[in-house]
Protein: TetR family transcriptional regulator
Amino acid sequence: MFERYNKVQKAVLETTLHLIIDRELQATSMSLIAKDSGVSTGNIYHYFSSKEDIINELYKAIVLFNGEFVTKDLNQADSVKKRFNQAWRNVFELGRKYPKGFRFIEQYSFSPYIYEQTKQEAIQAGWCGPLEKLYEQAVNEGIFIALEPRMMVQMHYGSIVYLLKLYQGDSQNLTDEVVDQAVLANWNAVSKEKGSNS
Structure:
């Protein structure tokens, strides 16, 4: 998730993510980050000006990683439905493989700690933008009902977030069958033609 960073930055970002998820943001101090990461406070300040700077870099790093993960294997030559299915299955896989990153984005996307500029950069780098374009194509081609693409993407993401939270809380066994049914339900919610998931 943090492979593009140097060893010190990676240690700080990984440690901060674990601490925030385990202890909450307010309980995560610079001294605790230094202690748990094994990086001196002075060295941390060489790369990050403040705890808020670390949080914002963490947010950008996770959003960028998520964007690459969700849009992997999406071939523009494939049908809208095939790309739709692949993208949402990738979202499920992302939530299962990287639960702490998933939880961080869910908890802090609207936090005042995240600067507005960081949020705007994240929108450009994340996966929502590419999916909005896919939905827009589906609307223009008469495959989807004429709703605003961004709203549809967010509606579908909300339903998937709920299932992933149930899974992470051990309330739902997230089998491939459940994933397929959820993706199909999202497709059927906006598609002009209902049908099997393929």
Observations:
- The chain has a mean pLDDT of 90.
- The radius of gyration is 19 Å.
